[in-house]
């Protein structure tokens, strides 16, 4: 009997993103640096994984039914991914985002049919989270709450970590991930610890005063509940200047157009590789740089690589 052809859906294409080796950014006498290109996910970022995972978990738990309204606070990538996932599933999506995010991110959300609610820029993600909670209380919209939802880190524990192990044929020694909701670094550390406890997972936070989209150092009262430091080897900081410089270098010298959080992770990955001869250091390239082209990140007229 011939098996009927069943083409993949968008959801089937989430994950299995490629890993590529950096070639021109030098690590003299050190290890090898690899980029895990999460921008190759259907909606363009690492957040595709938890977005589809959280909606699937809510469906399985009976929290959402056909035609439901969902609400979530986001700084950009999770919102885009949720907007895409909600479009696939037929849900109404309300996204709460601090003003000042790149125009590309906001337009991407509305292109998928989501409603965007902007909060005061000075209130940051803390105000956006509080506003999403208020909308949920007032309207009955289901808040997915990526900051407390176990389906967020679970997506990386079950998939992203094992993928890195398989794609490096078990040679990976370090994995570097920026910390936003902390779901990625928490899930990676759990997943890799179960496979190979020797692999060191390093989280990246912004240095004091740095403003790097997608990377946060939370005040204690807003620390995401999904955060679990048990298997995270260490947390390092990166300056805004260094993140910007490395992001631009990745585009100009490696042909990798990524966002600033990816550049921040790459900067620390290069640092670790220089410190550890013989190492294989993988960093999570969270998203694509084309959603930041209207920002100063790539406004480098007159500069030379």
- On the 0 to 100 scale, the average pLDDT is 94
Helix/strand order, N-terminal first? EEHEHEHEHEHEHEEHHE
Q: Outline the low-pLDDT stretches.
A: none
Which structural class do the helices and strands define? alpha/beta
Helix content: 25-40%
* End-to-end CA span: 59 Å
Kindly provide the radius of gyration, computed on alpha-carbon positions and rounded to a whole number of angstroms. 19 Å
Overall shape: globular
**Number of alpha- plus pi-helical segments:** 8
Spatial sequence of strands, sheet with the most strands: 1-2-10-7-8-9
Tell me what portion of residues adopts beta-strand conformation: 15-25%
Number of DSSP E strands: 10
Largest sheet: 6 strands, mixed
Topology:
Blueprint: E1 19-21, E2 32-37, H1 48-60, E3 69-73, H2 77-89, E4 92-98, H3 103-111, E5 115-119, H4 124-139, E6 142-143, H5 151-167, E7 174-178, H6 183-195, E8 200-206, E9 234-238, H7 240-254, H8 260-275, E10 280-285
Parallel strand pairs: 2-10, 3-4, 3-6, 4-5, 7-8, 7-10, 8-9
Antiparallel strand pairs: 1-2
Helix pairs in contact: 1-2, 1-5, 2-3, 5-6, 7-8
Q: How would you characterize this protein structure?
A:
This protein is α/β, with parallel strands linked by helices and 305 residues long. It is 37% helix and 17% strand. The protein has eight helices and ten strands. The strands form two sheets. It has a six-stranded mixed β-sheet with strand order 1-2-10-7-8-9. α3 (103-111) links the parallel β4 and β5 (115-119). α1 packs across α2 (77-89). The chain is globular and about 60 Å long.
